[in-house]
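New to this. Explain these C-alpha cells.
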Amino acid sequence: MARKNLFELSEAAGEQAPPDATRSSLVRPLMGLDRPLKPGRPVGAISQSLENINSRAQRAEEIERKLSEGHSVVELDPSLIDQSIVVDRLGITDERRTALVDQIREHGQQVPILVRPHPDDSARYQVAYGHRRLAAVRQLGRMVRAVVRELTDEQLVVSQGQENNSRSDLSYIERCYFAAKLEARGFSRDIIMASLGVDKAALSKMIALVARLPAEIIEAIGTAESFGRQRWADLADLLEERAKRARALKAIQDPEFAALSSDERFQSVYDMVKIPAKKPDRTLWTALNGSRLVSISDSESKTTFAFDKRIEPQFANFVRERLQALYDEFRQKITD
C-alpha cells in the first residue's frame, strides 16, 4: 500500500541523489539523533533488520531535512497546546523524564514538536508528536519550539506514528494499544498500517492481542519495554481464566505494585497468574443418619454442591425448589 507523502517529499529527488548521499552519516539534530548512523551492508540472516534500520534512518533524515528547510519553527506558549487526538504512550519513567528536562535546561530544545491548529478552537493547537518534549518544556516554564502545519486527523496520526517508528520509540504493547485506540476512533486499517509501518497481518495480530487483555492491566503495567509479542500473548492466554484475571485486577490496585518499574510490573502479574490455580477443597456433607448426601467443592471463584441421587433421589429437587426462600433468608440476615 502506498504511504501518504505527508511532508510533500519528492520521490524523484531521492532517486537523483548522488551515491555519496546514501552513505552519509545521517546526523539529524532536529529528530534528536545526534550520533551518526552509518548504513551497513545487509548480510545473511540479519539483512532484513539492517534494511529496516536504514529505511527508518533515511525516512527520518528526509523528515528532518523538510523540517529544517521547508517550514519555519515558531515559539508557542505550551499552555495553548492540547494533546493528540489519540495518545500513543503508556507513560515515561521518572529517570527518562528527568534526563530530558535536564538536557533541555542545559542545551535548549533542539528538536521542534509538530502541531496543528486546533480543529475546535482557533486560539489553540494540537500536538501531533513531541509530547515528552512539550511536557519537559512546560516543566521548565519555557516557550516551546514548534512547526505548525494544517493536518487532517488522518495525516496527524500517520505523522505521529511514523515519527515514533523512525526512532523505534514505542514498546510493542504501546504500538498495539495505539493501533487499537485508532481503530476504536474509526480510523481505517489502511491509515493505521501507514501510521505504524506494519502490514495487514501484523496489524490484525496487534489489535487482536489488545482485545484479549483488560485495558486496566495494560495501562497499569505500562510500556514493559523488555517484553514483546510472545510474552504479552502468553499473558493473555493466562488471563483467559476468570479467577486469574480477577487476581490480576486486584493486584494492580496495590500501591506497592505502582512503585515497581514497568518491566517489574509485567513480571509480577505474569508470575502471579502463571502459578497453577489452587485445587478446590472437597468435603462431604453427612446427614445425622450417616448418609453422605452432598459433595462440596470449594475453589477461589465458586462453590459447587453435588447431590448423590443414589442415596436420596429427590433431595436435589427439594433443595432447588427452596433456593429462593434460602436466598431471601440469607439477604435478611446480612442486612439486619
